[in-house]
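Appendix C: a fully annotated inverse folding record. The material below is reproduced so that readers can follow the format used throughout the book. The structure is listed first as tokens, followed by the designed sequence.
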């Protein structure tokens, strides 16, 4: 398989970026337990897999794999955003969150792997830590420790992923996006 061949993922893998209305606000870090609780509740009500995630002072970025039978990410984010606003501040959602959120459907394994790496590198790029695995609110920390990924959906074939800095990643057949990122380390 050539390095530039793109392996399709289907319609179930998505990247999201959700921001607080004030970029100077650190409410997400001060109330990180509320973020985790509302995400957990959304996953219980409408299941999805989190392949990569980071909670920054005023932004949440995630890569989700949604079930093929229910790809409505909007209802999940409405529950997360409104639940956080209600339990963290007691204010309406529109007062603490930016309108809408950024969403991108990831069409190939390469796009998913790239977005997972970018999510996990975000705290380093913002100057919050020197190493991605040192940020306590990131899937990079879980990857460094050895996450339990047995229940995550698998990538269908072996893939070679080119890296921007040269070289490539060859991952195991059946690896998830999170495992692909771990193989790059």
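Designed amino acids, in order:
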């Amino acid at each position: 398989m050539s390095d530039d061949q793109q392996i399709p993922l289907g319609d179930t893998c998505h990247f999201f970026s959700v921001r607080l209305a004030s970029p100077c606000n650190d409410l997400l870090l001060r109330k990180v337990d509320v973020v985790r609780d509302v995400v957990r509740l959304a996953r219980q009500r409408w299941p999805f897999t989190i392949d990569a995630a980071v909670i920054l002072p005023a932004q949440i970025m995630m890569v989700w794999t949604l079930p093929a039978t229910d790809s409505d990410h909007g209802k999940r984010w409405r529950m997360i955003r409104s639940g956080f606003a209600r339990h963290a501040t007691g204010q309406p959602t529109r007062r603490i969150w930016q309108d809408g959120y950024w969403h991108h459907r990831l069409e190939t394994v390469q796009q998913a792997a790239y977005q997972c790496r970018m999510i996990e590198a975000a705290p380093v790029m913002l100057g919050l830590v020197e190493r991605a695995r040192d940020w306590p609110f990131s899937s990079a920390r879980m990857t460094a420790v050895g996450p339990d990924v047995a229940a995550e959906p698998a990538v269908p074939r072996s893939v070679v992923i080119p890296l921007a800095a040269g070289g490539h990643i060859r991952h195991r057949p059946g690896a998830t996006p999170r495992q692909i990122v771990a193989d790059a380390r």
